[in-house]
Amino acid sequence: MTEMVYGTVSVRDSEPVLPKWWRTVDKWSLSCILMLFGIGILLGLAASPPLAERNNLQPFHYVQRQAFFGGLALTAMFLTSLLSPVLVRRLAVIGFLGAFVALALLPFFGTDFGKGAMRWYSLGFASVQPSEFLKPGFVVVAAWMMAANQEVNGPPGTLWSFALAVAIVLMLALQPDFGQACLVLFGWGVMYFVAGAPMVLLVGMAGLVVFAGTIAYENSEHFARRIDGFLNPEVDPNTQMGYATNAIQEGGFFGVGVGEGQVKWSLPDAHTDFIIAVAAEEYGLVLVLCILAIYAAIVVRSLIRLMRERDPFIRLAGTGLACMFGVQAMINMGVAVRLLPAKGMTLPFVSYGGSSLIAGGIAVGMLLAFTRARPQGEIGDILRGRGR
Length: 388
Known about the structure:
Layout: H1 2-6, H2 17-24, H3 27-54, H4 61-81, H5 85-109, E1 121-122, E2 127-128, H6 130-149, H7 157-173, H8 178-194, H9 199-219, H10 221-231, H11 240-251, H12 275-307, H13 312-336, H14 354-370, H15 379-386
Helix pairs in contact: 3-4, 3-12, 4-14, 5-6, 6-7, 6-8, 6-13, 6-14, 7-8, 8-13, 9-10, 11-12, 12-13, 13-14
């Protein structure tokens, strides 16, 4: 039936896996991801030695760990990008279920490492943050449900995915981790918009988010403290935000020079949440703009390729992954320049962190798998054919 409607397309059945992958993968996005990893190692060389010294470790201890976890992340990205969309969906469902259970058990077996938020499992030699692995799995599962909702006599997948999103947001808010909660809700909203959600409903949901934020402000000291600090016109120079703001101002256009920055000696999270402040101080606005351009290129390239895709599941899942990837980067950099309240969110592929690196590799691998060229005809060809 598909051939009768869309016509046949020749397929190279005997083509080996790796040459086929190289021919169909988005090489521009792949190159940008590798550049981000390289920039992360470069900034890690600058930002992590002070932390290693404070912890009585070798100067490049954290750089070596970042390279190790980054290697695992790139391997996960490559292996995931080799898979077909069906296999990606199956593995995402399994991974999502495991991460969902792990997130639910955090209040009983998790730790906060003295940061006031129960987000991690301590393994002794490393820590795991379930929410990082939950995000890509949730996007794929929610996209599958929404795509099923569009089928004739299909299940109420959109409603199911919304209920799932609400459950995840509530668990994240209880940690508390409002940044990841907002990111999950944003990813679901973007997919729902692409699936054809009415604007009135989206506006109503935005109102509910504002209402929920008000309730959280009134009942969560952690949330209120961060909002008050953001709204305060005076920045305390002895806070992380104050150090980051000063570092960005000192960096100027070309930076103070490699290794000459001072913020890394004051910021406890210089190698993670505020890595962009280190980049701005030592390398200046030039490197920051390059990093912005790389993230924008990945997102725009992915969305352009997804616009040509006729499978609704692939379109929705790919759009959710691409937008969530870009917004996480935007939130991290927005916090550093005080455009957003502090969120405790890493910069994808640049910040130090085993969970964020490996989960980011899996998410980007899924995105590369969904944006690979396929011998199926493009949606534009179908619309032009119907218009004849």
